[in-house]
Amino acid sequence: MLTKQKRIAAIHDISCVGRCSLTVALPILSAAGFDTSVLPTAILSTHTGGFENFTYRDLTADIRPISDHWQSLDLHFDALYSGFLGSFEQIDLVATLFDTFQSEDTLTLVDPVMADNGELYSIYTPEMAKGMSKLCAKADIIVPNLTEAAFLLDEPYIGDHYDQNYVEALLVKLSQLGSKKIVVTGISFDPSKLGAVTYDVATNTFDYAFNERITDYFHGTGDIFGSTLLAGLLNDFNLKESTQIAVDYTRECILKTVELNQEKRYGVCFERALPYLIKRLNLLS
Q1: Percent of the chain clearing pLDDT 70 (strictly above)
Q2: Domain contains 1
Q3: Membrane-spanning residues where (predicted)?
Q4: In this structure, is residue 85 part of a structural domain?
Q5: Span 209-225, average pLDDT
Protein backbone atom coordinates (compact mmCIF):
# COMPACT_ATOMS: atom_id res chain seq x y z
CA MET A 1 0.00 0.00 0.00
CA LEU A 2 1.40 3.36 -1.02
CA THR A 3 1.79 5.98 1.68
CA LYS A 4 2.05 9.73 1.32
CA GLN A 5 5.46 10.84 0.10
CA LYS A 6 7.47 12.52 2.84
CA ARG A 7 8.76 16.06 2.30
CA ILE A 8 12.13 17.37 3.49
CA ALA A 9 13.45 20.94 3.69
CA ALA A 10 17.22 20.90 3.09
CA ILE A 11 18.96 24.10 4.21
CA HIS A 12 22.51 24.13 2.85
CA ASP A 13 24.77 26.07 0.51
CA ILE A 14 25.18 25.38 -3.20
CA SER A 15 28.69 24.81 -4.54
CA CYS A 16 28.30 25.04 -8.30
CA VAL A 17 31.34 22.79 -8.83
CA GLY A 18 32.44 20.15 -6.34
CA ARG A 19 30.01 17.60 -4.94
CA CYS A 20 28.91 18.68 -1.47
CA SER A 21 26.02 20.34 0.38
CA LEU A 22 22.87 20.66 -1.74
CA THR A 23 24.38 19.07 -4.85
CA VAL A 24 24.83 15.95 -2.70
CA ALA A 25 21.81 16.18 -0.38
CA LEU A 26 19.19 16.77 -3.07
CA PRO A 27 19.99 13.76 -5.30
CA ILE A 28 20.57 11.37 -2.39
CA LEU A 29 17.34 12.27 -0.62
CA SER A 30 15.42 12.26 -3.90
CA ALA A 31 16.78 8.82 -4.79
CA ALA A 32 15.73 7.66 -1.31
CA GLY A 33 12.14 8.51 -2.21
CA PHE A 34 11.56 11.94 -0.70
CA ASP A 35 10.12 15.20 -1.99
CA THR A 36 13.11 17.41 -1.20
CA SER A 37 12.68 21.17 -1.04
CA VAL A 38 15.81 23.32 -0.83
CA LEU A 39 16.72 26.59 0.83
CA PRO A 40 20.19 27.75 -0.30
CA THR A 41 22.21 29.60 2.34
CA ALA A 42 24.96 30.71 -0.05
CA ILE A 43 26.16 30.14 -3.61
CA LEU A 44 29.81 29.41 -4.32
CA SER A 45 31.46 28.89 -7.70
CA THR A 46 33.24 25.87 -6.21
CA HIS A 47 33.47 24.39 -2.75
CA THR A 48 36.27 25.74 -0.57
CA GLY A 49 38.48 22.66 -0.37
CA GLY A 50 41.24 22.47 -2.96
CA PHE A 51 40.12 25.51 -4.96
CA GLU A 52 41.29 29.12 -4.86
CA ASN A 53 39.62 32.38 -5.93
CA PHE A 54 36.13 30.94 -5.61
CA THR A 55 33.17 33.31 -5.66
CA TYR A 56 30.85 33.51 -2.66
CA ARG A 57 27.37 35.02 -2.48
CA ASP A 58 25.69 35.23 0.91
CA LEU A 59 21.93 34.55 0.71
CA THR A 60 21.06 35.64 4.26
CA ALA A 61 18.55 38.21 2.96
CA ASP A 62 16.59 35.52 1.11
CA ILE A 63 15.97 33.11 3.97
CA ARG A 64 13.10 34.90 5.71
CA PRO A 65 11.15 35.73 2.49
CA ILE A 66 11.44 32.10 1.36
CA SER A 67 10.33 30.86 4.76
CA ASP A 68 7.42 33.33 4.82
CA HIS A 69 6.25 32.18 1.40
CA TRP A 70 6.44 28.54 2.46
CA GLN A 71 4.38 29.40 5.53
CA SER A 72 1.76 31.12 3.35
CA LEU A 73 1.45 27.86 1.41
CA ASP A 74 0.78 26.00 4.67
CA LEU A 75 3.58 23.56 3.89
CA HIS A 76 4.29 20.62 6.19
CA PHE A 77 7.74 19.07 6.37
CA ASP A 78 8.44 15.59 7.67
CA ALA A 79 12.08 16.57 8.17
CA LEU A 80 14.15 19.74 8.47
CA TYR A 81 17.82 19.30 7.61
CA SER A 82 20.38 22.07 7.98
CA GLY A 83 24.07 22.10 7.12
CA PHE A 84 26.51 24.85 6.16
CA LEU A 85 25.23 28.31 7.09
CA GLY A 86 26.63 31.36 5.36
CA SER A 87 26.62 33.97 8.13
CA PHE A 88 26.13 34.47 11.86
CA GLU A 89 22.69 35.99 11.19
CA GLN A 90 21.55 32.81 9.47
CA ILE A 91 21.73 30.86 12.72
CA ASP A 92 18.82 32.81 14.22
CA LEU A 93 16.95 32.81 10.91
CA VAL A 94 17.17 29.03 10.61
CA ALA A 95 16.22 28.65 14.28
CA THR A 96 13.09 30.71 13.58
CA LEU A 97 12.35 28.57 10.52
CA PHE A 98 12.59 25.48 12.73
CA ASP A 99 10.13 27.02 15.19
CA THR A 100 7.77 27.79 12.31
CA PHE A 101 7.74 24.37 10.66
CA GLN A 102 8.47 21.91 13.46
CA SER A 103 5.57 19.73 14.56
CA GLU A 104 5.24 16.57 16.63
CA ASP A 105 6.01 14.39 13.61
CA THR A 106 8.83 16.52 12.15
CA LEU A 107 12.37 15.16 12.43
CA THR A 108 14.99 17.90 12.70
CA LEU A 109 18.59 17.04 11.86
CA VAL A 110 21.38 19.60 12.25
CA ASP A 111 24.77 18.93 10.71
CA PRO A 112 26.87 21.74 12.25
CA VAL A 113 29.14 22.07 9.23
CA MET A 114 31.85 24.49 10.29
CA ALA A 115 35.18 22.79 10.95
CA ASP A 116 37.50 19.85 10.33
CA ASN A 117 40.96 18.69 11.36
CA GLY A 118 40.97 21.00 14.37
CA GLU A 119 40.23 24.24 12.47
CA LEU A 120 37.17 26.32 11.62
CA TYR A 121 36.34 26.84 7.96
CA SER A 122 37.53 30.13 6.50
CA ILE A 123 34.27 32.09 6.80
CA TYR A 124 33.46 30.82 10.31
CA THR A 125 34.30 32.57 13.58
CA PRO A 126 34.29 31.33 17.20
CA GLU A 127 31.14 33.45 17.66
CA MET A 128 29.40 31.49 14.90
CA ALA A 129 30.51 28.23 16.48
CA LYS A 130 28.91 29.21 19.78
CA GLY A 131 25.75 30.27 17.97
CA MET A 132 25.60 26.91 16.23
CA SER A 133 25.25 25.22 19.63
CA LYS A 134 21.96 27.11 20.10
CA LEU A 135 20.69 25.77 16.79
CA CYS A 136 21.69 22.26 17.82
CA ALA A 137 19.45 22.64 20.87
CA LYS A 138 16.44 22.71 18.53
CA ALA A 139 17.41 19.48 16.75
CA ASP A 140 16.28 15.92 17.32
CA ILE A 141 19.61 14.70 15.95
CA ILE A 142 22.98 16.42 15.52
CA VAL A 143 25.84 15.06 13.40
CA PRO A 144 29.15 16.79 14.21
CA ASN A 145 32.63 15.49 13.54
CA LEU A 146 35.17 15.54 16.38
CA THR A 147 36.39 19.04 15.54
CA GLU A 148 32.86 20.44 15.43
CA ALA A 149 32.03 18.69 18.69
CA ALA A 150 34.97 20.42 20.37
CA PHE A 151 33.87 23.85 19.09
CA LEU A 152 30.24 23.26 20.10
CA LEU A 153 31.38 22.45 23.64
CA ASP A 154 34.10 25.14 23.70
CA GLU A 155 36.68 22.49 24.49
CA PRO A 156 40.18 21.85 23.09
CA TYR A 157 40.42 19.60 20.06
CA ILE A 158 42.55 16.61 21.01
CA GLY A 159 43.08 15.11 17.56
CA ASP A 160 43.45 11.35 17.47
CA HIS A 161 44.35 11.11 21.15
CA TYR A 162 41.07 9.67 22.41
CA ASP A 163 39.62 6.41 23.65
CA GLN A 164 36.13 4.98 24.00
CA ASN A 165 35.57 6.58 27.41
CA TYR A 166 36.44 10.03 26.03
CA VAL A 167 34.16 9.59 23.02
CA GLU A 168 31.17 8.44 25.05
CA ALA A 169 31.62 11.26 27.60
CA LEU A 170 31.79 13.69 24.66
CA LEU A 171 28.47 12.45 23.29
CA VAL A 172 26.79 12.80 26.67
CA LYS A 173 28.01 16.41 26.91
CA LEU A 174 26.76 17.11 23.40
CA SER A 175 23.33 15.77 24.36
CA GLN A 176 23.21 18.37 27.11
CA LEU A 177 22.98 21.03 24.42
CA GLY A 178 19.42 19.77 23.90
CA SER A 179 19.38 17.15 21.16
CA LYS A 180 18.23 13.66 22.16
CA LYS A 181 20.20 11.72 19.55
CA ILE A 182 23.86 12.36 18.77
CA VAL A 183 26.00 10.96 15.97
CA VAL A 184 29.70 11.83 15.90
CA THR A 185 31.58 10.99 12.71
CA GLY A 186 35.22 10.27 11.95
CA ILE A 187 35.71 7.86 14.87
CA SER A 188 38.47 5.27 14.77
CA PHE A 189 40.02 3.01 17.42
CA ASP A 190 41.83 0.85 14.86
CA PRO A 191 43.91 2.29 11.98
CA SER A 192 42.13 -0.05 9.55
CA LYS A 193 38.60 1.02 10.58
CA LEU A 194 36.65 4.28 10.40
CA GLY A 195 33.08 5.12 11.29
CA ALA A 196 30.74 6.84 13.71
CA VAL A 197 29.30 6.52 17.21
CA THR A 198 25.71 7.20 18.26
CA TYR A 199 24.10 8.09 21.56
CA ASP A 200 20.38 7.87 22.31
CA VAL A 201 19.41 9.82 25.41
CA ALA A 202 16.09 8.00 25.82
CA THR A 203 17.73 4.60 26.15
CA ASN A 204 21.14 5.82 27.39
CA THR A 205 22.80 3.57 24.80
CA PHE A 206 25.86 3.94 22.59
CA ASP A 207 26.34 2.14 19.28
CA TYR A 208 29.29 2.03 16.91
CA ALA A 209 29.28 1.67 13.14
CA PHE A 210 32.55 0.93 11.34
CA ASN A 211 33.82 -0.18 7.96
CA GLU A 212 37.25 -0.59 6.35
CA ARG A 213 39.15 2.71 6.18
CA ILE A 214 40.29 3.99 2.79
CA THR A 215 43.38 6.02 3.56
CA ASP A 216 43.09 9.50 2.05
CA TYR A 217 40.96 12.63 2.37
CA PHE A 218 37.86 13.05 0.22
CA HIS A 219 35.70 16.19 0.06
CA GLY A 220 31.94 16.07 0.61
CA THR A 221 31.77 12.79 2.51
CA GLY A 222 30.26 14.45 5.58
CA ASP A 223 27.32 15.69 3.51
CA ILE A 224 26.90 12.24 1.99
CA PHE A 225 26.89 10.71 5.47
CA GLY A 226 24.35 13.16 6.91
CA SER A 227 22.00 12.89 3.93
CA THR A 228 22.16 9.10 4.00
CA LEU A 229 21.59 8.99 7.76
CA LEU A 230 18.43 11.06 7.31
CA ALA A 231 17.33 8.87 4.40
CA GLY A 232 17.65 5.79 6.58
CA LEU A 233 15.72 7.30 9.47
CA LEU A 234 12.87 8.48 7.25
CA ASN A 235 12.71 5.03 5.67
CA ASP A 236 12.03 3.65 9.17
CA PHE A 237 15.46 2.25 9.99
CA ASN A 238 16.51 2.88 13.59
CA LEU A 239 19.45 5.11 14.56
CA LYS A 240 21.98 2.27 14.73
CA GLU A 241 20.89 0.81 11.38
CA SER A 242 20.78 4.20 9.67
CA THR A 243 24.25 5.07 10.90
CA GLN A 244 25.68 1.80 9.60
CA ILE A 245 24.01 2.36 6.21
CA ALA A 246 25.51 5.88 6.10
CA VAL A 247 28.99 4.58 6.96
CA ASP A 248 28.76 1.82 4.35
CA TYR A 249 27.37 4.02 1.57
CA THR A 250 29.99 6.70 2.18
CA ARG A 251 32.69 4.06 1.78
CA GLU A 252 31.06 2.77 -1.42
CA CYS A 253 31.18 6.31 -2.84
CA ILE A 254 34.88 6.57 -2.03
CA LEU A 255 35.56 3.17 -3.59
CA LYS A 256 33.90 4.27 -6.84
CA THR A 257 36.05 7.40 -6.87
CA VAL A 258 39.23 5.39 -6.39
CA GLU A 259 38.22 2.82 -9.01
CA LEU A 260 37.54 5.55 -11.56
CA ASN A 261 40.71 7.45 -10.63
CA GLN A 262 38.79 10.70 -10.25
CA GLU A 263 40.36 13.95 -9.08
CA LYS A 264 39.54 14.09 -5.38
CA ARG A 265 38.95 17.80 -5.04
CA TYR A 266 35.75 17.49 -7.10
CA GLY A 267 34.20 15.23 -4.48
CA VAL A 268 33.36 11.54 -4.57
CA CYS A 269 31.40 9.68 -7.24
CA PHE A 270 28.28 9.18 -5.14
CA GLU A 271 26.15 8.98 -8.29
CA ARG A 272 27.74 5.67 -9.28
CA ALA A 273 26.94 4.21 -5.86
CA LEU A 274 23.26 5.23 -5.72
CA PRO A 275 22.08 1.74 -6.80
CA TYR A 276 23.87 0.36 -3.72
CA LEU A 277 22.03 2.86 -1.48
CA ILE A 278 18.63 2.14 -3.02
CA LYS A 279 19.17 -1.57 -2.43
CA ARG A 280 20.25 -1.01 1.20
CA LEU A 281 17.15 1.09 1.83
CA ASN A 282 14.93 -1.70 0.44
CA LEU A 283 13.45 0.60 -2.19
CA LEU A 284 13.49 -1.87 -5.08
CA SER A 285 10.19 -3.62 -4.32
Answers
A1: 99
A2: no
A3: none
A4: yes
A5: 92
